[in-house]
Amino acid sequence: MRVQLDQEEWVVEGHATLEDVFADISDRAHARSRLVTKLQLDHRDITDRDLDCSLLKQPASQYEKLIALTQSIAELEHDAWIAAGRYAKLLYAEGMPLVEAWRAGTPRDHAMNEWLGRLADYLEFTEGGDRQRPTDRRTSLSFWVQELLAARERGDMVLTADLLEYEILPRLAA
């Protein structure tokens, strides 16, 4: 089997299993501070769901070529922030009809709950973990989401709509 890891190529001979080959690829990528982001086995894309025992135990000699592509952590993080920006714009677009519904006095609770769930996913990425917290918590999107949840709990439709329209959505559009 021929193996290609980015621009590096080598031949695997002998009794190696695919598990051995994948481990070698992972070790080589790790040595370069990179992560494997794409695997192609004989023109077939391999995902993490494909990596089960039945595949891993197969002899590497059954296949012609394995191609592995990697990315650095910095590249992955950069791509993730770009995707988060696109996701924020989607959340903004989905949030505008919610403002209109609250302003009309016809809150769409189910739609709002689903939207808030997606917003929570966004917040987990942008404000979760070890990231720096803003010194003024009022600049934090999560602060305004907490305020919105409290206003919604009290049944304050005007404040809920105001917080959504003037505090939360503009931060997603930025």
Structure keywords:
174 residues; alpha+beta; Ubiquitin-like (UB roll); 2 domains; five-stranded mixed sheet; 6 helices
Note down, in words, how this protein is organized.
The model has no long low-confidence stretch (mean pLDDT 93). The chain folds into two domains: 2-74, Ubiquitin-like (UB roll); 76-173. Strand 1 and strand 2 (8-11) form a beta hairpin. Helices cover 57% and strands 16% of the residues. Helix 3 packs antiparallel against helix 6 and helix 5 (141-154) packs antiparallel against helix 6. The radius of gyration is 24 Å and the shape is elongated. With 174 residues, the protein is of the alpha+beta class. The protein is built from six helices and five strands; from the N terminus they run E-E-H-E-E-H-E-H-H-H-H.
What is the number of helical segments per DSSP (H or I, 4+ residues)? 6
Helix content: 55-70%
Shape: elongated
Cα-based radius of gyration, to the nearest Å: 24 Å
Number of beta strands: 5
> Mind describing the biggest β-sheet?
5 strands, mixed
Helical/strand content category: alpha+beta
Give the low-confidence spans: none
Secondary-structure map with pairings?
Blueprint: E1 2-5, E2 8-11, H1 18-31, E3 34-41, E4 44-46, H2 53-56, E5 65-72, H3 73-103, H4 109-127, H5 141-154, H6 157-173
Parallel strand pairs: 1-5
Antiparallel strand pairs: 1-2, 3-4, 3-5
Helix pairs in contact: 3-4, 3-6, 5-6
